Amino acid sequence: MTVLLIAVYFARLVVTKSPHTDEENLSPYRLPDAISPVNYQLTLLPVIEDKPRLCGHVWINVTVHSSTNVIILHGQILPVETVVYADSEPTDDNGASRSVVEKLCFSGVLATLEQLNDDEPKARDDNDIAQSVHLNEDSEQLIIILKEELVVGAYYRIGILYLAEINDGDNIGFFRVQKKNEDVSNCCPQRWLGATQFEPAHARKVFPSFDEPAFKATIGLTVGHDSVLKAISNMPWKSSKSLETVDDWVWDTFETTPAMSTYLLACVLSELEYLETSYLSIDGRNVSLRLWTEKPKFNQLDLAYRLVPRIMETLENYIGIPYSLPKLDMVSLPGYDLARAMENWGLIVQRWSDIWLNEGLATLFEGIVLNRIAPELGVDVITVLFFQQALFHDNMNISVPLNYPVELLPTIEHKFDGFAYAKASVIFRMVRSFVGDEAFRSGLNRYFNKFQFKAANSTDLWIILTQESRRTSTMSSRKHLTRIMKNWTDQSGYPLIQVDRNPDGTIQLTQTPYSDLNMHSLDNVTETASWWVPISMTNGGDPKFSLKDRLPVVWLTPKVPSMAIEGPNDSNTWILVNLEYSGYYRVNYDPLGWELLSEQLVRNHTVIPALNRAQLIDDVFTLCHIKILPYEVSLRLIEYLAHAEEEPFVRSVAVGHVGRIQQMMEMQHINNDYLTNMVKVMMSYIVPSQKTESRNFYSTDIDFRCLSEDDQCVSRVLSLFHDFANGTETSAQSRLMKNHFDHVWCTALRHGGKSEWSYAWNSTRAPSTKLPEKRKILKAMGCTADVNRIQQLLSRVFLPSTSQQPIETSIILHSLAENPSARSSVMTFVMKNWAFLSKHFRNPALMRDLLVVVTRHSSSIAELRKVSAFLEQKAKELGPGITDLIVATISSNIRQVELLKLDFSYQGLIHDFSNDLTQVEQISLSEN
Ligand SMILES: *[C@@H]1O[C@H](CO)[C@@H](O)[C@H](O)[C@H]1NC(C)=O
Ligand SMILES: *[C@@H]1O[C@H](CO)[C@@H](O)[C@H](O)[C@H]1NC(C)=O
Ligand SMILES: *[C@@H]1O[C@H](CO)[C@@H](O)[C@H](O)[C@H]1NC(C)=O
Ligand SMILES: *[C@@H]1O[C@H](CO)[C@@H](O)[C@H](O)[C@H]1NC(C)=O
Ligand SMILES: *[C@@H]1O[C@H](CO)[C@@H](O)[C@H](O)[C@H]1NC(C)=O
Ligand SMILES: *[C@@H]1O[C@H](CO)[C@@H](O)[C@H](O)[C@H]1NC(C)=O
């Protein structure tokens, strides 16, 4: 939700790479810059019920920069009539446009279209300088050849009457969605609603336009629709008129937008209803906020209703610039989860070269804003997730640098899928930490004020931030962000910082490119990469973690990748580098360094902040996975978890890593006592004992569900479940059930028999089961280990009587994909039923996500072959980005399994875990 809001907020500043460079003009898909639009007057008549069709007319007011006799713009439409006038007569109130559009859609003109399209002589119009119009379907361009050259500096008016499609499959362009009737009686016909999705480049499917972000113009929209529907667009409603020939249809006209990119235009036609609230903008205006959804779902808007106004206020206050539009509407489309719907509807992503700038800022702000208004939602959790995601993906030799020229990418989509958000936000977090919060804030304020409604690029921002950091003396005058940032944005990957103690008491800091191939180094490209690395640092003698203390004490640079600096007075105290996860790098310490940190954690872990604890755990396990460190170091570092009251998100980082080791072992049938014992000990540390469990709330990670198939735990959970199912539970049990719903159901369905399964299956179909509960049960059913039940759950989507919603299918498939017993069936299922599922989801992005999810634990050569064959077959549909990601993930898994096997096939290093284990068991017994 906040991602959406912040994207909306930032959308008024559209960051673009200017189109005016020679290099880019070489691309056949980019428009020439001889002319640019000033204003669109757009009249749309989308017919979404019967014989869906869209009729439209647009007047585009353009200005001429260099002489030309051809106008090229985007259009995946069928032009019916095109004119170009040299006059600058202002158009009337669009009465004429409405009339002709109405005629085109409703007066049988459609039938004679073929004829219209023939080169029959037009009535003579001396003012019209258009000679002919050509549609280039490959480049999605409309080419208008003129009778004369355009005059530089003059304004012209292009008028196009056209037909376009209502998209019925994918949710792009102007599309329609059928509103499911959740009413059991099924009394009433299902109604369609219409909506637009123009980002990144689908506006051209709905109206002829200069459909690149850098071309900004004001847009006046008039849309015609059945009056039972309500129309909303970016701007407030202005006026309505009836259609001339169709009863009960109206034209709604909206206020003209500020100058903006075409992809930002949006429109929804629906019977949804809204909750209204508002907030006071820093410029004194009361800005109206409306949240639209189906009436029965109003209760789900509760959080949004409370938070949205505060988010907007906080954003404005932080940057010091008011939101520029008069109102904000947020729409949740039916059939979608709230979060997903909003993302689909409003996450305004601009997928050109510098787009990461906008998105990275938006994502970073999500953190800053959340932290201020709702710290209880846990911004640290998000930070850790982003860091883990970015660091994990950015070393797979497939990630493209943030600033990769868009022309070189096979598809625009490739540019901004998945991890790039995470990386961009993390990079900005780093910038904020080394220029300081004050410089960052005032820099952004200046940047947004200066470039509002204009095109800007990252260089502009770096220049301003450099000036601000000099003003606040946070960076020396010899440093410049344009130079510092180049290596972070123009190359993929990140450094590993090695921290060693020299015998003379100094500390040696060294950067090398991080690579998960460190063992058998193959990649000569990244091996030579280097960065400007800000090193923030503290030590056990005087631990400090404030914002100010996070400023770098020293920089490693491409020229000086290694240096010695003065150490703490006490050489036997710990050193910690990269405070509060601010730098985009991993850190490794010498053995004594790790040991001193582990000791501190055992002694008093809160001396080191939670974010740093999460980071230490993530770094140490990652370095162990790639064999830079032996697993004993991880084991020692997480020992403190056995007794500490630790934040769930920190614990879950450890759970994730140990789970990964376990999963690899399970899937690859690695049977090794040493490894098994080690994992057991790790588990005993990270799984809370009875005592702490009651106080904390844990995520539903599979590894928390009666770990290691502990019989006692399972029978406790089963009896709780039985009492609940039979309605004989006590109030204490009922509370337990409520607090541990996921855990209890998952365990009961994994270890239970036919009666538990039937109970769950029937519960998902009972009208009395509430929607959120039903979804939780479906998720828990994904825990089953029984082959037949897995098949039954997978086939649920085919049952006509169930009419399973896409969101439910998604929940089931995701849950099964994380279940080792079901993983391979679910992968096969998805591949086999690809066509069916594509139709079911109607959303290519969801399908791509799904494929990533069901393949991400594959770790054998056979699976790689199978998946590759499938990817090859679907190459065109999926695009190379996703193919590369999946293949790289599986390859990395295979490598890791090999490393695991290697490590534990020789017994030289063996340390006897059985002692530790007995100790731990004794401890937890005495606690019980
Ligand atoms: C086109 O835009 C220019 C600049 O805003 C304006 O002066 C002119 O009147 C406009 N022409 C039409 C036909 O709207
Ligand atoms: C950014 O824009 C400036 C002009 O505003 C230009 O000089 C510079 O080369 C651009 N930088 C990039 C990375 O496109
Ligand atoms: C990497 O090494 C290979 C083999 O030595 C060589 O052929 C290739 O050109 C190198 N790549 C780069 C980018 O240096
Ligand atoms: C990193 O940046 C420095 C200059 O700041 C440059 O000399 C070096 O080539 C860059 N390294 C890479 C791999 O881009
Ligand atoms: C642990 O460290 C924190 C932070 O320095 C301190 O507030 C707390 O009192 C310490 N706890 C103990 C038991 O020493
Ligand atoms: C009800 O309780 C009985 C006895 O404990 C048990 O066997 C049965 O499975 C329970 N019913 C359900 C639906 O769990």
Automatic annotation (TrEMBL):
InterPro entries: Aminopeptidase_N-like_N, Aminopeptidase_N-like_N_sf, ERAP1-like_C_dom, M1_APN-typ, Peptidase_M1, Peptidase_M1_aminopeptidases, Peptidase_M1_dom, Peptidase_M4/M1_CTD_sf. GO terms for biological process: peptide catabolic process; proteolysis. It is found in: Cell membrane. Its cofactor is Zn(2+). It holds the Pfam family Peptidase_M1. It comes from Daphnia pulex (Water flea). The keyword Manganese does not apply. Belongs to the peptidase M1 family. This is Aminopeptidase. Transmembrane segments: none annotated. Residues 349-488 form the Peptidase M1 membrane alanine aminopeptidase domain. Residues 1-16 form the signal peptide. The record marks Y421 as: Transition state stabilizer. CDD domains: M1_APN-Q_like.
